[in-house]
Specification:
Strands 1, 2, 3, 6, 7, 8, 9, 10, 11 and 12 form a ten-stranded mixed sheet that branches. This protein has a two-stranded antiparallel sheet with strand order 4-5. Helix 3 runs parallel beside helix 9. A hairpin with a 6-residue loop joins strand 4 and strand 5. With 395 residues, it is of the alpha/beta class. Helices cover 26% and strands 14% of the residues. The structure holds 2-acetamido-2-deoxy-beta-D-glucopyranose (5 copies).
Length: 395
């Protein structure tokens, strides 16, 4: 016990505490597989949304679950279209490398993980059947740049560790939370998950220490109905949300890449040079920081039902090498690509890249035609075309 406390103290002391423009702490909580239209009708979710901003045009990136989690920290899902065991090579950097540039501490909290840094595929309930923790809902562990680094691996902890960190006011400045396969709704259902969420969130929303300058993103990973556009409910909560915006709606186009762009924007971090660049920053944060969102995509055209080809695609004919990042891009943090990426991808600096900084959401089309697959172009800076988006918060 005393040893654990000491370790915690040592870890906290080595990390910096870096104030952000709109928040000092970002916590994202992920639920599973529900369509927007059903979730907004749920009474628990209506209660939750009263405390924050409902994002009405937030989209999952593809199906099934795993690529959505992977994309949220790496800026691409690399063609992934399944939930099986995958590994992304060490030369692919993540959000962790961005946070490291300012020594900002982070952790992943996964309900049912048996111990820090667990790399197995799943854990089961006592009945031996019911899945509890699943690797596919862990966005960090599939990246070799994280799992092959002991310091980073040990930051993948359990939900019990989250509660301990809340109690000790020892939460890191970035945290991902995945409830287990029951509580996230995957093996139960919509109401079970929103009810769990209320039970989980309410004490936190009443905890002044926790709420102070904290931004919580409650989101789903993907929608339920694969034949419909991948629109999901997401809500921004916490003490960082201005009071006058509580209970409002924001209809800006967002995706899981907005997590990266918003964090980069808030802490003036460099970028990954992938789809993080150009993704809209959460509008209230952009308003505070003075950043202009420019992704002007036609929201009605977003589908995101199928994965485009790539390195992690299960279909051999859809295999593609990992695309080189666009080393010329400047992200929402006002900075270029992070140094480690520039070093790792130096030899590919002359290669064409699909990352153009426009914020356009590519997908696998309808599976027959490929008109919305990534388009490779020479590496270049991005200059926004046309008008920047004005922000509206509707009551
Ligand atoms: C391992 O992770 C730590 C903490 O993120 C980082 O400072 C260090 O550079 C990493 N080591 C390697 C070899 O990537
Ligand atoms: C909601 O959660 C509470 C606390 O965990 C539990 O007691 C209650 O039975 C749940 N209600 C429903 C409808 O699942
Ligand atoms: C990145 O790593 C992969 C897998 O080891 C390798 O195939 C690829 O050539 C590497 N890319 C660069 C630019 O080094
Ligand atoms: C979205 O893509 C899916 C899968 O290809 C397709 O079945 C569906 O018709 C598309 N929906 C729209 C509105 O384009
Ligand atoms: C790391 C960083 O850029 N911090 C800045 C965040 O925003 C505040 C307020 O604008 C600045 O004072 C910090 O320097």
């Amino acid at each position: 016990m005393r040893f654990g406390l000491l370790l915690g103290w040592a870890a906290a002391a080595s990390a910096a505490y870096v104030p952000g423009k709109a928040f000092d702490r970002f916590i994202t909580i992920w639920l599973e597989n529900q369509d927007y239209t059903k979730v907004v009708e749920d009474n628990d979710m209506k209660e939750i949304a009263k405390h924050g901003i409902l994002l009405t045009e937030y989209h999952g990136l593809t199906h099934p679950s795993q690529p959505n989690y992977v994309a949220s920290v790496g800026g691409d899902y690399f063609g992934l279209n399944h939930d099986e065991f995958v590994q992304v090579p060490t030369n692919v950097s993540t959000l962790v490398d961005l946070l490291d540039t300012k020594n900002i501490d982070w952790r992943g909290y996964f309900e049912g993980v048996p111990g820090p840094g667990y790399m197995g595929p799943a854990t089961h309930a006592k009945d031996g059947h019911q899945l509890i923790y699943v690797r596919k809902h862990n966005p960090f562990v599939s990246y070799d740049s994280i799992s092959r680094n002991g310091t980073r691996l040990l930051k993948l902890q359990s939900l019990a560790d989250f509660q301990t960190d809340v109690k000790n006011n020892a939460l890191p400045q970035y945290a991902h939370v995945s409830p287990n396969m029951l509580n996230d709704g995957h093996d139960t259902g919509l109401h079970y998950a929103t009810n769990w969420t209320q039970t989980f969130l309410n004490p936190l929303l009443d905890n002044k220490q926790f709420m102070e300058k904290t931004l919580v993103l409650l989101t789903y990973d993907e929608s339920e109905t694969y034949s419909k556009p991948n629109r999901i409910v997401s809500v921004l909560l916490g003490g960082a949300v201005p009071d006058k915006l509580k209970g409002t709606k924001d209809d800006t186009l967002y995706s899981h890449y907005s997590i990266l762009s918003t964090v980069e924007n808030n802490w003036s971090l460099p970028s990954l040079g992938r789809y993080d660049v150009g993704a809209n920053v959460f509008a209230f944060v952009a308003e505070i920081s003075g950043y202009k969102n420019h992704a002007s995509d036609d929201i009605a055209a977003v589908n995101n039902s199928l994965s485009y080809p790539g390195f992690l695609n299960w279909n051999p004919s859809e295999y593609r090498p990992i695309p080189p990042p666009n080393l010329k891009l400047v992200g929402a943090g006002g900075q270029g690509v992070v140094d480690i990426v520039k070093t790792e991808w130096k030899l590919a600096a002359g290669d064409e890249t699909p990352y153009d900084g426009s914020g356009h959401l590519y997908d696998g089309g309808d599976g027959l035609k490929s008109e919305n697959e990534p388009v490779y172009k020479p590496q270049a800076e991005y200059t926004p075309q046309g008008a920047v988006r004005s922000v509206r918060f509707d009551a």
